[in-house]
Design brief:
Largest sheet: 6 strands, antiparallel
Distance between the termini: 53 Å
Strand content: 15-25%
Bound molecules: octanoyl-coenzyme A
Main location: membrane
CATH class of the largest domain: Alpha Beta
Keywords: Apoptosis, Cell membrane, Cell projection, Cytoplasm, Fatty acid metabolism, Hydrolase, Lipid metabolism, Membrane, Transit peptide
Membrane topology: Peripheral membrane protein
InterPro entries: HotDog_dom_sf (IPR029069), THEM4/THEM5_acyl-CoA_thioest (IPR052365), Thioestr_dom (IPR006683)
Strand order of the largest sheet: 1-2-4-5-6-3
Order of helices and strands: HHEEHHEEEEHHH
Radius of gyration: 18 Å
GO molecular function: hydrolase activity
Number of strands: 6
């Protein structure tokens, strides 16, 4: 493989850089009249765990045996952090994390920003840069923050660093989430799981509370 395709070199390769710049000029760039995201007055305090939004969620669910079990915590402003340990079942190549799995972890930590804004939103677009391979047993330190809002659109960004909060940058993602009503899940979800979730008063109370603006 050409040395030019080494991760660090790729970022300075003019062809790659211009492709990336033109992408960021489109749907992941907040419009000029976008506003800063606002932390909800009832958002968990910095350092507080957010808890799972759904026990069966692949990203954060405590009752999902195949899941990532991300346990995100509130950060300062509209930000969140989490640690993710890469396990043998997360492999793509021998001993290395699967890229799609890492993108899932980024999607989940970005989705956790909902808790800071008391907004229900879903991923519309997710763009991920894989900067270096992530070995099994690594602990990825994930951080996400919302950067702007425009109507129902929430712009946000996340990083994953290996070994510590200031460790080498391994994964980076930018995303656009779109605010939805609770009905989004009722209309599109499968009946059995919807009914089970609706039977859980905590889930329903939390979801409804998020629909009320500060
Ligand atoms: C409860 C939290 C769970 C968090 C779990 C982790 C996050 C997830 O994985 S969520 C699951 C994955 N995502 C999904 O399933 C979403 C599937 N997609 C959808 O349901 C719809 O396409 C949805 C809701 C995103 C947008 O549809 P709709 O509500 O009709 O909105 P629509 O009017 O098309 O778009 C609203 C705005 O967003 C923009 N937008 C929508 N999709 C995109 C996109 N993919 N890229 C860029 N912009 C987009 C539109 O251009 C529009 O912008 P503007 O207001 O400036 O005109």
């Amino acid at each position: 493989m050409s040395p030019a395709w080494h991760a660090r070199d790729r970022l300075t390769d003019p062809a790659v850089r211009s492709a990336s710049v033109s992408a960021t000029k489109t749907s992941l760039t907040p419009p000029d009249d976008a506003v800063p995201p606002v932390r909800h007055p009832d958002a968990p305090a910095p350092g507080e765990p957010l808890g799972a939004h759904y026990a069966q969620c692949f990203g954060c669910g405590t009752e999902q045996p195949h899941g990532l079990h991300l346990d995100a915590r509130a950060g300062e402003g509209v930000s969140v952090t989490a640690e993710f340990t890469v396990r043998p079942e997360h492999q793509g190549a021998p001993g290395l994390a699967h890229g799609g799995l890492l993108a899932t972890a980024m999607d989940e930590i970005l989705g956790s920003l909902n808790w800071l804004m008391h907004t229900i939103s879903v991923t519309g677009r997710l763009e991920t840069d894989f900067l270096q391979p992530v070995p099994v047993d690594s602990v990825l330190h994930l951080t996400a923050r919302a950067t702007a809002r425009h109507g129902r659109k929430i712009y946000c960004t996340a990083t994953g660093r290996v070994g510590g909060p200031d460790g080498p940058l391994a994964v980076r993602a930018d995303a656009l989430f779109v605010e939805v009503k609770v009905e989004h899940f009722v209309d599109h979800g499968r009946k059995d799981e919807i009914e089970a979730a609706m039977a859980d008063p905590d889930t329903v109370r939390r979801a409804r509370a998020f629909e009320v603006n500060p």
